[in-house]
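Below is how a single chain appears once it has passed through the pipeline. First comes the sequence as given, then the structure the pipeline wrote out for it. We keep one example in the README because the format questions we get most often are answered faster by looking than by reading.
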Amino acid sequence: MSNVYTNDAIDSQYIKGTLDKRIAECSQLFLAVAFFTDSSVILKALQSATEVNMLVRLGFPTSPESLEDIFEKPGLKLRYFNSTRFHPKLYLFDNSSALVGSANLTSSALSVNQEVVVSIEDEIVVTDLSAAFSRWWSQARPLTRETLNRYAKHIQLHKDEYYSSQRENERWLVEIEKVEYQGAHHTGKKENKQSLFVLKLAQRYQDCVSAFQKVRSVFESDGRRRVDMTSVPLRVEVDCMISYIRDTDAKGAKWKSPVSKDKFSDYMESVIDRWVDASDDYYANHVVVKNYPLIMNAFKDKETS
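Resulting structure:
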């Protein structure tokens, strides 16, 4: 089988076909693309329980609608640069193989355009590609609801100008802080200590939210709840269950035994079994009876909200 994919009907080596096949067989997908307009690939990956770390350039023609389709989906971490210098097309599967070439994550690039994408399985090369992705990832900014809304509004107002002008990204960069990779020889403005702290905090928050969503998804699928916690929102009970896991299985941030990705669902099922049958009343007394009502009453008070 060829390792080169060009969307040529002569040999039927379509990029989307091999991309779909590899995603279905992997547990983690790492991708970095300049343009993103086709959300179906990501949604399909998430439906198959593949964890996705995605880097995209936030600038035309990246589609706000496609970003909205996948935004905050469980199993997805989404970060961005907005500099026009961010231009890779890299797809990594479990850090063991890769597709690299000219194809962005657009329906035309994956199925219609004359592109060239090469499959790579050489361990040394894949390791180097993984390292490059990690460097980008460490500096990219997590996409927030506020930024996505600003981008969607901007594109709606100026899309006609984008289609008729080659200066596609300049207006957008006037409206929002520039986010550019600092490892290139043509580096932009260096991050100061405060902005670096904020960036790392945002990245850490994204990691926590992603993990929370993963746990919540399993909990919702199970359908069971503790009888003494049904009066609080589900998100509050999930947060309590995570604290319960920390107290029972990871005291001092050290796990009794590490949980591999392929065992996560089984592990969560055992945790839920223990959680719903737990006899302790700490969470019921402190969270349900005291803390949650106290917080809700505080937010109802105009002086504290």
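Strands lie at 4-5, 28-33, 51-57, 76-81, 89-93, 97-101, 117-120, 141-142.

See the next section for the split statistics.
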